[in-house]
Design brief:
7-stranded antiparallel sheet, two-stranded antiparallel ribbon, 9 strands, 60s Ribosomal Protein L30, Chain: A
Length: 145
C-alpha cells in the first residue's frame, strides 16, 4: 500500500487557560469559547467534572454514530480535541475519558448534552487555519491536509 499519510507543519499562536460556565453544555461552550476568542484552529485539553454526559461511538462498518448517555455525575479523566473549520463554521472535535464514582472508565466522541459541573480548558491556537472535508472512505469529516 502506498504511503497515504498527510501532514502540515503548524505554528503556535495565542494560548489560553479557560474555565467553562457551570451547567453549560460542554460541546457548545467549547464552540462559544472559540467564537468569543476568534479562534478558528486550535488544539486543547480539558479536565473537570460533568453532571451528566453524552458521547458518541462510531460504528466503522456502518459509518454511523451511536449515542452513549450517562445520567449521573462523572469525572473527566482526560479530554483532548481540536478546532477546525467545516463549511466556514467552527467545528469542535473532542474525545473524552470519563470515570464514575467506582473509577470505571468510559470513552468516546463528545456530542451535545454533557452538562458542565466544573471544567478547565487549556487552548492553544495554531496557524494556518485548517478545514475539514467529507471523506467517503470513512464517512467522516476529516482534516483537509
Amino acid at each position: 500500500m502506498a504511503d497515504l499519510m498527510s501532514y502540515l507543519e503548524v505554528e503556535p499562536k495565542r494560548e489560553f487557560i479557560c474555565k467553562l460556565p457551570y451547567d453549560s453544555d460542554l460541546l457548545l461552550a467549547l464552540k462559544d469559547l472559540a467564537k468569543k476568542l476568534n479562534v478558528k484552529t486550535a488544539v486543547f485539553t480539558l479536565l473537570g467534572g460533568l453532571k451528566n454526559a453524552s458521547l458518541f461511538y462510531y460504528i466503522q462498518s456502518e459509518k454511523r454514530y451511536v449515542k452513549i448517555t450517562f445520567d449521573f455525575p462523572v469525572e473527566i479523566v482526560s479530554g483532548i480535541g481540536n478546532i477546525a473549520m467545516l463549511n466556514e463554521e467552527i467545528m469542535v472535535h473532542a474525545h473524552l475519558v470519563l470515570s464514575d464514582r467506582e473509577g470505571r472508565c468510559y470513552g468516546g466522541h463528545l456530542t451535545e448534552g454533557s452538562k458542565v459541573f466544573a471544567c478547565e480548558v487549556h487552548l492553544k491556537e495554531i496557524s494556518p487555519v485548517l478545514n475539514r472535508k467529507y471523506d467517503p472512505i470513512t464517512g467522516l469529516n476529516l482534516l483537509d491536509i
